[in-house]
Amino acid sequence: MSSYETYNRIFKLGMQSALEYRMDLIFSLLSAFFPIMIQYFIWSAVYADNPDQAYFGYSYHEMIMYTIFAAFTTRIVMTHVEHEMALDIKDGHLNRYLVRPINYFSYRFFNLIGQKMFFNCLMVCAIFAVLICYSIYNGTPMKLERFLLFLAAVILAFILNMLISYAIAAIAFWLSEISYFFEMTGLFVIIISGGMFPVDIFGPWVNAMLDYSPFKLTIYFAANVVSGRLAREEIIAGIGMQGLWIISMYILSRILWRIGMKRYLGLGG
Amino acid sequence: MYAWWHTLKNYLVIYWLFAKNCFMAQMEYRFNFYLGIGVEISYLIAKLLYVVVVYKTDLHIGSITPDGILLFVGTFTLMTGIYSGLFFYNSLKISEYVREGTLDLLLVKPISLQFLVTLRYIHFGTPIPNVIAGGVMIVIGWNALEIPVTFFHLFAYGLFLGVATILAYCLMFLPALLSFWFVNTGGLGMIFYSIWDANNMPMAIYSKWARRIGIYVLPFMVITNFGPLLIMQELRVDQLIWGLCVPIIMLVGFRMLWKRAISNYSSASG
Question: Looking at the partner chain, which of A34, A49, A191 has a beta carbon nearest the beta carbon of B46?
Fold first, then answer.
């Protein structure tokens, strides 16, 4: 069996498992809208008295657009794959992948793409629909180029986030019971990636620090690309930085897993 | 009457044993216990970001000042602590019992199945950050609003914390109960967590229809709004009556749904 056939099969398996509980999938889709509604009401109240004032550098419309796009982008890029990887390490299930002619990272990667394909496509459609509604509401033509650049940015953000999760999951080689730890890191990553509020609310000092991390290049960057806050040159530079961070995180995660594998005993239930 | 009191006493003793058993188990794995606290601290930081936004933007919601909002956020944080300590882990367990068929073993125990399934596990670590931070925010907000600390105010606020605890029980177990029909209800659970999080802000922030649904259909908004509104003397009489009746209505409704859910259990898993 060729590599293409192998990973294509893994991709399809991931897709099948995601569509197994359809009702649950529908509820998961619906749950993406609730945080948007909450934030919409909060920001509407904040701007109600001074509709023309900018808070944290955002006008009312920009803030609402950021809220919507960041919520959808968060759902697209968050993988939570570290939980499954840590279980494989803890329970010794990693053994079954080590003796097979497949690469563990590639297996997880293609399986994840399969699992998230349907959900992410719907999320991207929702973003597209919001863009169309916004352009009709404003009477301005929708820029297809911006949407295409967003697609590139969000795909790279997804890969970057997957690599961050892969690197974090390597901690499972040193600590056996770390599901709580991943819960913590997951939330922390969402906050500093701009998944809850724009990272601008943390002030210039924290923002300057975050410039040297990959986190701003996931949710915050992708949401600002599609909301139109960034110029074309800034988007191209950002996509370039995403590429560099993907290479860096890939190398870092490979090193961490190589060191971790030396400690791996293959025990467990 | 004596039989009723005797049964209540028995259940309180069993609940005390549950608590003791859980505490011993959690102390055995102390690292996990501390990590659980760490997770709650990170969620708390996320909640505090809303407070940062409130004060940085000097947000006023009608007559509610940022200090007033802090009272609401504090109540929400405190209730989140109570919910996470008493109910959250039990609600996660229900779908596991149904999926794996382990409910069979619990069905044969000589005590109320609802009591056993919904109150068996108590987590002592996770409520600590929320209860402390919530308490501090309530005290700061209460002081800043210059609400007198009288017996009536303390009793009224405490009463509505009790109402809120009953409502949290009835509402947050609903997705888990539906697992008797749909098996996997993680997505529905996420919707309910999102609605729960909507309480992070006073209900006045939401539209009229959202408020009506949040008070009379799925009374989430009663949980963290009625207590602060009462001591701020902004709770209407009809809302006060509803606030005192709704826990009884919800408990009866939950009991009926529970019975239907159990009759639907097929023990199909291997």
Answer: A191
What residue spans define the domains of chain B?
2-263
Q: Report helix, strand or coil for A103.
A: coil
* Number of Cβ atoms within 10 Å of the Cβ of A62: 18
Chain A neighbors of B76, CB-CB under 8 A: none
Q: What gap in Å lies between CA A122 and CA A113, rounded to an integer? A: 14
Closest approach of chain A CAs to the CA of B73, in angstroms?
A: 13
Contact call for residues A63 and A43 (beta carbons, < 8 A):
yes
Q: What sign results for the dihedral spanned by CA atoms B259, B261, B263, B265? A: negative
Q: Which of A156, A153, A66, A81 is nearest to A116 (CA)?
A: A81
Check if B89 contacts A (Cβ < 8 Å). no
Q: Which two tokens stand for residue B93?
A: 């367990």
**Would you say A167 and A246 are in contact if contact means Cβ atoms under 8 Å apart?**
no
**A139, burial (CB in 10 Å: exposed 0-12, middle 13-18, buried 19+):** exposed
How confident is chain A (269 residues) per 10-residue block, as mean pLDDT?
83 85 77 85 86 86 92 90 86 85 89 90 91 84 85 95 92 79 87 91 90 93 91 93 96 93 74
- Note whether B202 and B226 are within 8 A (CB): no
Integer angstrom CA distances of residue B123 from A234, B87, B89, B111: 48, 9, 8, 22
Say how far residue A87 (Cα) sits from the centre of its chain.
21
- What residue ranges of chain B have pLDDT lower than 50? 270
- Smallest Cβ–Cβ distance between B194 and the set A34, A49, A181 belongs to A34
Question: Which of A20, A24, A174, A182 has the highest number of chain B CBs within 10 A, making it the mutation to test binding with B?
Answer: A24
